[in-house]
Specification:
CATH topology: Gamma-B Crystallin, domain 1
Order of helices and strands: HHHEEEEEEEEEEE
CATH superfamily: Crystallins
CATH class: Mainly Beta
Oligomer: single chain
Distance between the termini: 86 Å
Number of helices: 3
Shape: globular
Number of strands: 11
Number of domains: 1
Mean pLDDT: 87
Largest sheet: 7 strands, antiparallel
Strand content: 15-25%
Helix content: 25-40%
């Protein structure tokens, strides 16, 4: 009888461990990374493209202030929630949300009421969307000395100020009032700016 009780206790323990193991597998299959891979597959990306995109997201998050959160297959929200980083999908130059239609032009990539910063010329590459009226230290997102173009699609007439860190925040130039855009290629400010204050009026 003692042997039988031990046998049934062993069977019960094995069942519990199996349930825990299955539960862990289920949790893993529902992990955010797997969800983003499924999102990429639904958008038509190959497995190789999906892995490449996730690697780019991981690399970008390493440059950002701790607390940043990946919110989709190609988007990261900053720790304070005030800015959104979007990476271009494989084979594309203009950044867009993975579930959004490809913009008809680079100018259409920046939503109304936002100022958008790009690390590529001609409004391409990584896009950072700014909405909140506050000062943004681009070093917090790894975009310092990487800004190459911007689109100011804020409310009409609203402008933005651009700064460089020189042991203090040195103002360098202001954008024209919305709507406006500028490529910094060929100017002294290409890959030079460290801070931006949108919503200047």
């Amino acid at each position: 009888m003692v042997k039988l009780r031990r046998f049934f206790a062993f069977i019960g323990m094995a069942g519990t461990l199996a349930a825990i193991s299955l539960g862990g597998a289920s949790a893993a299959s529902a992990s955010p990374v797997n969800a983003y891979a499924a999102q990429a597959a639904a958008a038509g990306l190959t497995e190789q493209q999906s892995h490449s995109l996730q690697s780019q997201v991981d690399d970008q998050m390493k440059r950002m202030k701790p607390g940043a959160v990946q919110v989709s297959a190609n988007q990261i929200r900053t720790a304070d929630g005030d800015a959104l980083i979007t990476l271009p999908l494989p084979g594309e130059k203009v950044a867009r949300a993975i579930n959004a239609a490809e913009p008809i032009s680079a100018f259409a990539s920046c939503p109304y009421k936002y100022m958008c910063l790009y690390d590529g010329t001609g409004y391409t590459g990584l896009m950072m969307q700014l909405y909140t009226c506050k000062f943004y230290n681009l070093g917090d997102v790894g975009l310092n000395d990487r800004l190459s173009s911007y689109i100011n699609n804020q409310t009409p007439g609203t402008a933005g100020d651009f700064y460089n860190w020189e042991e203090f925040w040195a103002w360098k130039f202001s954008s024209a009032g919305a709507y406006s855009q500028q490529s910094l290629l060929g100017s002294p400010y290409n890959n030079y700016i460290d801070g931006v204050y949108p919503c200047y009026n």
